[in-house]
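Appendix B. One record, verbatim.
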Amino acid sequence: MKNIILTCMLFAGSMLVADEVLWQDNFAKDGSLQDNGFKIIVNNPKDSFTVKNKEVVFHCSNKPYRGLTFQKKVQLVPQSEFYFEAKIAAAGTNGFDHSSLKIELGNMLLTFRKNKLWIHRPSKNDWIQPGKIKYNVWQKYKIRFDAANRTAEYYIDDMNIPVFVDEKSEFDPSKGDMLRLGNYGLSSGTVICALRNLKYTKFEQKVNKDNILFEEKFAVDGTPEANGFKTVVNNPKDVFSVSGGVLKMVCNNKPYRGTTIQKRVPLPAQCEIIFDANLYMEDSSGQYNNASLKIEFGNFLMAFRNGQWWNHKPSENKWLVPAKIKNNTWYTFKVRLDSTAKRAEFFVNDMTTPVFIDEKCEYDPKAKFTLMIGNYGLARGTVVNAVRNFRVMKITQNNKAQKKNDLNGTMLFAGMDVSKYPLEKYAAKFGKGQISKFNFETPAVNLSNSTNKYEISPVPPYRPASLPQCIIMADIPLDAIPAYAQKQMLEAINNGACLLIFNGLFTLNKGNFHKTEFEKILPVTVDDPWKNPVAGKDVKTSYINNTLALAMKNAGKGKVIVIMTPEGGRELLEKGI
């Protein structure tokens, strides 16, 4: 029996740019780490960390778990990149049989041992190994963190293609604000390592200032009134204050009579609302059991309650829940509104890939002309929330036709049972740029007609920055992908993108490919769900039985690639990698 294996990737186009360096260490002062602002917290007299020519040289010796360690307080944010260069075992290589260099960034611990970079998982007290390293060679390292989505991308030397993507990252900037450099003292002899060019960068959405319709930076310290707001509902116990560009709200229990401030703002038919918020940032004793922050934009009402972001539906007097959030964590929220299309796209931290799309949005720019920020007064006790950087942006249409040279990145649709395939490896081989991953989920079963309900999460954006260079579908039914995204995928393929599809329980025949535009481009014949797809006349036996290397020769050339392998064909695929 043979399986048909197809693969596909689509790119959502990142709009993130590194526009703010939060801190960096170039080790400018020769001498010691203390001279460069670090403090000793663990001391092994046999070890020495010296600074010369903007490099730190570590002399590490054996003293198990009592190596020399230095620390410095730093600023950490959820969406960020940490870059550094290191030379491991520059001398004394024979003694390098265990960890002789460690770097801690908040609650994230990385170390170098036995030719590999190792990352610690605090919750399980175990380690993952993102990639191999070289001894006595300067190498570049980069880690791209997204704390909200629990992802971390690891790069070694090649700063464009990750060597590993951790989708269960435990990096949490709220759990630590220290940079620590040190060693475990576990090497059997003296080991010399070196470090240089540390940099930590915040990622934000690239903003065209010409598109800003309204911006509130809370620039005047003091009160909301000093920043042009008016108090419309007042609980005398509540305290609203502004400091350092942050509106801080101390909210108390007074049901539906919390303090609210307002300001007149433009309300276009199409726009984006962007703001940062930190929910329940103080008094974490369990008092936050309901909505203590609300933001109204005209008739568009948002609330934050019980660890969730809520959006109100006026006509039905009910709420949608676009996303889950954590307390005491800064998030960037964005809503893209289109009153004509009755559509709202919700984004959290990742400003290119929505977490939720409401296609029956009731936003009406004619309803009101105010921005209101306040609280419901429903928390059982005192709760402190904060908001900053509120913007209303024009939506600009990109009418430029996508050409072959404009294709960029990969998008990976991952199905139910694809753990046997190293999909990120395939994605990195076939496409250059960011890998945008979309997971197939079956949240519920419809018992009335015994049909599965399924979806992909997150959802592709309506307006990607660019079309994908490669599209991978791994055991994904076609109708799980929104129609607008399918149209983008077909356009990308017509302009030279590579399409690959992994067959499985939920794809091809059973994935509702029959009688669709995708059926016309497949090199296999698909039919009703209870028949097996068969090879089309254009698929030759020599082509079918070859390895993935043959498919790779056609990548990026507008090919729709089918690889038919025997059962358990993972090994055959991996030979092509």
